[in-house]
Amino acid sequence: MTCYRSRNNWHSYVKASLNEAELEDMTAHLTHCSECLDIVSIIQETAGIFAKSQVILSPPSTIKLNVMMAIDKNRYKKVSFPHLLELKNWGFSMVAAGVLLLALNLTSLAPTIESGQVAQLNSQIVQQISLQISHPFERISQAAYSAIGRLETITSSPPKNKQE
Q1: Which end of the chain has less Cβ packing within 10 Å, N or C?
Q2: Which residues of 95-133 are buried (b: 16+ CB within 10 A; e: fewer)?
Q3: Same domain, 97 and 150
């Protein structure tokens, strides 16, 4: 056996985990090669030091209790129902605002609406929205609903005949 081939078996030799044939080959090689014998003796010495200084670590018996006590249970509460309603109201408000903008854009297509009525409606909408700024998320959909109602009354009213 050469030094190169014996290198793979040094730790197995120290642990005595070689089969009989490999053990005989390694023993024969170590009797002739002082360099490999020195390395194997260093490995045995290091393994002995580690075996003597082995510390068995066991966690304290109260570690689970201490960890569970340290968890802030208020931090991990599920989302409450009123919070979900608030998000739902946001969605309804956004839909109402979108419908309002769509209705205002369609007013140019309706021939029955006069420009004065659109300006008046616009000022009423701005006035209602400015009143709602203090509570924008609670009643914006009500303002949009009333604005759409006014638009419907304007578009459904009969056209005025201009007489000159």
Answers
A1: C
A2: ebbebbeebbeebeeeeebeeebbeebeeebeebbeebe
A3: yes
Residue 61 lies in a domain: no
Letter string b/e over residues 75-93, b meaning 16 or more CB atoms within 10 A of that residue's CB: eeeeeeeeeeeeeeeeeeb
Is 73 a domain residue?
Answer: no
pLDDT tens digits for range 67-124: 988 888 877 776 666 666 666 677 777 888 888 887 777 666 555 555 566 667 777 7
Q: What is the CA radius of gyration of the chain?
A: 44
**pLDDT tens, residue by residue, 37-55:** 899 999 999 888 888 887 7
For the beta carbon of residue 1, count every other beta carbon within 10 angstroms: 17
- Take residue 54 and report the two structure tokens written for it: 């082995």
For 160, the token pair is 């005025």
Domain that residue 136 falls in? 81-156
